[in-house]
Amino acid sequence: MSNKKTVRKVKKKNPNLRLVKNGDIQPKKSRMHRDKQEKIRFNRSTRVGILAGVGILLLSLLLGGYYYIVKNYTITTVYVEGNIHYTNEEIMEMVMGGRYGNNSLFLSMKYSDKGIDNVPFIQTMDVSIEARDTVRITVYEKALAGYVSYLGRYVYFDKDGIVVETSEEKTAGIPQVTGLSFDHVILHEPLPVEKPEVFDEILNISQQLSKYSLSADKIYFDSNYQVTLIFGDAKVAIGDSQDIDEKIMTLQYLIPNLLGKSGTLDMREYSEDTTTYSFEQD
């Protein structure tokens, strides 16, 4: 009996089959994993680049828009109307002061559908943009009939005698009223005079003077409420309220002859036929 072992040759069924030993096994950290990491890194960098590009584009648009607005909406012409107490420059500073105050687009948004209130002597101010470089400021001042001097301040009142404002400065075109007696002043309340009806007369006198472009320095009432108008050193005795409109209408022709004179023109006795009035020099 032979001791030879017969070895059978096993024929490979798959020629591409490879035998891997146990020591040769490596973790499946595949090329696919590395490709995935590279792909992720690539995607992040792409997104950052896109965001940076969008940011630069938006910034460029904003800067371009800002430059266009600043260049094309700068105000070069301003119309101010209706102001007496404040100068044009003071009104412009109130409305257009501060940053971008000279830009019509900014002003149109700032004062859209609203006026400017809470300014002494002014009821409101309207701001309208007439063109990209043109703005109109319309001032509506409070209706002032006159002012009295009290404790070193000028106290302004309206047609009803209600104290509207107090100030240390005089307002041009508003007459001072003297001769009235009162012992206190409260803002937004009537002056406590003995005869409240006197304010109707003051308003009428102020309106008539304005109608004929006359500017009296003072309206004086004596103890009997007889009126004297004072123009510098010249005085015009008007008397009571009877025919006062006609007297002031006539006065417009007499005032030029009183300029530079010191004395009193007596117009207390008035009639349509009167052509001359006595003037008594001081």
What does this structure look like?
The chain has 282 residues and is α/β, with parallel strands linked by helices. The chain folds into 2 domains: 77-141; 146-281, Rossmann fold (3-Layer(aba) Sandwich), CATH 3.40.50. It is 31% helix and 22% strand. The chain has 5 helices and 12 strands. The strands form 3 sheets. The protein has a 6-stranded mixed beta sheet with strand order 7-8-9-10-11-12, covered by helices on one side. A hairpin with a 5-residue loop joins strand 5 (153-157) and strand 6 (163-167). Helix 4 (198-211) crosses helix 5. The model has no long low-confidence stretch (mean pLDDT 83).
Any key phrases for this structure?
alpha/beta, 282 residues, 5 helices, Rossmann fold, 2 domains
Largest sheet: 6 strands, mixed
Q: What fraction strand? A: 15-25%
Total helices: the number is 5
CATH topology of the largest domain: Rossmann fold
Low-confidence stretches: none
What's the order of the H and E elements?
A: HEHHEEEEEEHEEEHEE
Q: What average pLDDT do the residues reach?
A: 83
Which percent bin holds the helix content? 25-40%
